[in-house]
Every structure is written in C-alpha cells, then in structure tokens.
Fold:
Amino acid sequence: QRRVHGDLSAGMASEMDVSVEMPTDRSDPSGPPPEDALGHKHKHHIHRAVWLRAAVLGANDGLISTASVMLGVGASKSSDAMVASGFASLFAGALSMAAGEYVSVASQQDMEEVDIELERLEHQKGPAAVQRELDELTSIYVERGLTQDLARQVAIQLSQSTDAAVRAHARDELGIDMDDLSNPIPAAIASAAAFVVGSIMPLLAGAFLPTTNQRIGAVCGVSAVGLLGFGALGSRLGGGDCWGMTKGALRVLVGGSIAMGITFAAGSIFGAAGG
Structure:
C-alpha cells in the first residue's frame, strides 16, 4: 500500500488511503525490458512492409515473367529459343526492375526533400508564420485524441527550435521520418536481386534438359514450388500464422499459374499460326 497525502487549499489537508498493487520488479537491469516481466510480449511487423513488398514483388515477378516467357516460347516447340528467351527475360527484367524502382524511389525522395524544405521556409517567415505552424501542430494532436491544453503543451515542447519544429511537422503532418528518407540505390539493387532470384529457378530447371516437353514440365513444376514458397515466405515475414501462410501461398500460386497458362496458350496459338 501507498499512503497519498493531498494538500487542499487554505491549509486544509485530508488524508486518503489508496491501495495500489505494485508489480514486483524481478528483472535484471541488463535483462529484458519491464514489459516482458508483465507478460506484454508482442512483435510488430509493419516496419517490414516496404522492403517485404519490394522483395516479394521482385521475386514473384522474376519467377512468373521468366517462366511465362519460357513456356510461351516452348509452346512453339523451339527448344533452343526457350532457353535463350529465359536468359533474355532474366537480364531484361532485372534491369527493368532496377531502373523502375530507382526512378520511383528517387521521385519519392525528391518529394520528401521538397516538402521538408517548404516547412523549413515557412518557419523562417517570422513570428506570425511560426504561430500558425504551432496552431497547425496543435490541431494535429487534438485530432489524435489529446486535449487542447495538452496538445498545445506537446506542440510547444516539440517546437523549441526551427529544426525540431520542422522535424515534428515532417513526422506528424507529412508522415516523413527525416532520419530515414527514401534511398533509391538500395531499393534498385534489392529489386534487381529479388528478380534474379525468382528468374533463376525456372531458368535452371529447363536449361539442361534435352527435349522441349521435358523443359516445359520442369519449368511448370519448379515454378509451382517456387510460387508456393514465395507466397508462404511473404506471409510468414509479415507475421502470418499457418493459415495465413497457406492462403498467401495459394494466392500466389493461382495468380502465377493463370499468367503462365495464358502465355503458354498464346505461344501455342501463334506458334501454330507461324508454323
């Protein structure tokens, strides 16, 4: 129990007994955080969203694109061209993914830097502009559930300097972490690498078999296994349980199979017409 003394106005005092059950801290300062001692163990996965999306998209795209091209060409019964088209798809797709991801993320980085600079310029326009920005930050915290007075205190505390105020607006108004701005080079490399990982599976499966039919069968089998694996892995890394992994695997398998089936049919039709 803890005894709490409240001091009332005009020298009047009242004494209240408040029973508070305090948790026993048995944790070592160097050990796990206090939350673990209270049983609050949970791990968030949202921080993986950006790179997980790029990795899964790149790997699936590489597998489906290369397998589809090989099946489409293989449907025309051209064995040598089937392997050549697979290598062409790998290099073209990887470079395309890298270039596209670089341009996309670089554009996002440019927008983030422009918005941050606009906030900085706004805070340099004088006391009236600073006051408007403070009111804006206060309203953001009120919308998030704080009282007006508390929101004002938080806004003032986070705006002690121009740099601090800009950081607060970037984070809470624009959703930009100034310590973790978008970087196009790692994004481009990761996308290209993921595409190559996906592409290499059907390519190796069909590259060393003697007949076209054997190559088609190998590409289909390996691609199905790869699609199931990528779907399950993506769900697992996103925090999914066994059922979530199953759904993710089947979703990717169905989508990839449809793409490969349509390409194979197109190759058969145009290959027969050309023959």
